[in-house]
Amino acid sequence: MQHHCPERDRIHIVAIARALRDAQRFMGTMTFDEFAASDEKQNAVAMAITRCGEHVKRLSQEFRNSEPDVEWRGISGMRDWIAHDYDGLDFARLYYAVTTEAPRVLAALQPYIAPLAKIKQESADPFNVPRI
After folding, report:
1. E strands of 4-127, at which residues?
2. CA distance 30 to 10
3. pTM higher than 0.70 for the full model?
4. Which of 7, 22, 55, 88 could share a disulfide with 15, CB 3.0–4.6 Å?
């Protein structure tokens, strides 16, 4: 089955998947205790989740409604939490988001991403995403 979505959403879907994969790559196979002890990894993962949340906020409501099993509000809420209360971060929650929730979001987005595989990022800079 072909999954279609507006072009405007496609850019954000690709960016969301990229940010989640970055978060997974940064965390790697760390245990929670290893993650909790590494401020470097915490910062890298938090930044990737923040990028993800920024792009979730830019998805159309129609697209979000078409994938009701994804906790869109939770993702964008986590972005706000990281941005506004970094010193109050619950690293167990962040670890759970990357290890348990990110794979579910990526699975939900995969049918939309597969036809977009030909879309290449212009650079390796994670902030260099197409502007709309």
Report:
1. none
2. 31
3. yes
4. 55
